[in-house]
Automatic annotation (TrEMBL):
Keyword Lipoprotein in annotation: no
Protein source organism: Halorussus aquaticus
InterPro entries: PyrdxlP-dep_de-COase, PyrdxlP-dep_Trfase, PyrdxlP-dep_Trfase_major, PyrdxlP-dep_Trfase_small, Pyridoxal-P_BS
Highest taxon listed in the record's lineage: Archaea
Protein name listed in UniProt: Pyridoxal phosphate-dependent decarboxylase family protein
PANTHER family for the chain: CYSTEINE SULFINIC ACID DECARBOXYLASE, GLUTAMATE DECARBOXYLASE-RELATED
Positions carrying N6-(pyridoxal phosphate)lysine: 311
CDD domains registered for this protein in UniProt: DOPA_deC_like (cd06450)
Cofactor: pyridoxal 5'-phosphate
Entry keyword annotation includes Oxidoreductase: no
Amino acid sequence: MTDAEDLFLGTESGNDAYREAVERASAAVVEAVSESATPYSGASPDRLDDRFGGVECLPDEGQPLAETVEEVGDRILSDSVGVSDPSCVAHLHCPPLVPALAAETAIAATNQSLDSWDQSPAATYVERRMVDRLCDLFGYGPEGDGVFTSGGTQSNFEALLLARNWFGRERFGRRVEETGLPHKAKAMRILCSEAAHFTAKQAAAHLGLGENAVVTVQTDGDHRMDTAALDATLADLRKREREPFALVGTAGTTDFGSIDPLDALADRADRHDLWFHVDAAYGGALALSETHRERLAGIERADSLAVDFHKLFYQPISCGALLLRDGDRFDLVERSAAYLNPEDGDLAAPNLVSKSVQTTRRFDALKPYVTFRTLGRERLAELVESTLALADDVAALLADASDFEVLNDPTLNAVVFRYRPESVGDEEVGPLNAAVREALLRNGDAVVGRTEVGGTTALKFTLLNPKTTVERVADVLDAVRNRARTIAVADRQLRR
Ligand SMILES: *Cc1c(COP(=O)(O)O)cnc(C)c1O
């Protein structure tokens, strides 16, 4: 059978099939998100392993799409985590905005690829315009430039790749991307705070520097990089003839949402001639808000910055960007491929492949474009601001409850805490909180995050969802109490 008429867009029957397919898929989604009253069905890893263990993913003969979509709804969407549920408050994992979902549909169906202009004519210019607007938003001048990425991991990697190549030229007078790292590169060091994202180390590993090239600087009581400790670390590295070349500041640490003193870091970067990168994957959204924007002061002095739209900008995964204060520095990663960016092209069109570490690349810029145009900056800022206010209310609620302890004064919308009634001894607190978190997930009460503070397990709310209310969080705290009680009873029975 080679009749492909209704399998591809373009013909009447193909277009009809497309409309029907999208309708079926969205109906299955709507059923999954409205039917489930809980943020998770509670299905255990074993149950899911059993269910999918025997599924034939590549049968010799297929079945009608209607049947496949029905299966997907019944067996997959039904046991997906409900990111749009107000009690799903664990990770930097956002409920996607509806306008962005419309964009996602168009992105998939039109399948533009941002590597070369002839594969993405209008899309190339939309991405460029979005990048210009984002550079503006973060206070970069007209020399600013950037590229959309798959997220913070890739943005941080490319930023440190640029920094490494820059330093190779500056310090060793060579193009390390061609000749490889010189022996002296063993002394190269990247500085970030101890609360920085693990991808700084991961990037160092990928870049041939080794993750030991990352030196972590102590944080203060608010989990921000301590500038006195940074000065001491820099002095120590100089004394030991190490070669610090990059300083990574974080605007919104993953656990606490803390923001490093970016201006003070920029001063150090200037003084010591370091590439200053700001990881604003989480906190970048503050730039939308007239009230909170100030907390990012200094970000405009960064050589590069990473921002994620699939976190506090409510875009479906994946969607991030890397921005450079001086766009010419993309030269540091440019490579040419005759079929993608021919030198003698008579069309003076940009081929964005030269700025990216990806080749084939999605038109993810359309999602924030559609979102920004539809909601406007003010409305988007209100969504973000409401979640910051909620985090303050939740921290106050926890502080008032005698059986909880709150472990941070929220900067963004992350609240770290423990359940700690008087009856629970010090050694039991960590295991109890860990067990409670699992019980909440298993019973579908709530999806709550987990981290460690001072070597002891703590719980975490990442309150991204503007639909989450303080009452809803109070219900989650009651669920914590109930599950803890059940666990205590079970423990006692076990011990008997
Ligand atoms: C989420 C996050 C990252 C990683 O970004 P991905 O989009 O998951 O690749 C890096 N840094 C920070 C601070 C983050 O919050």
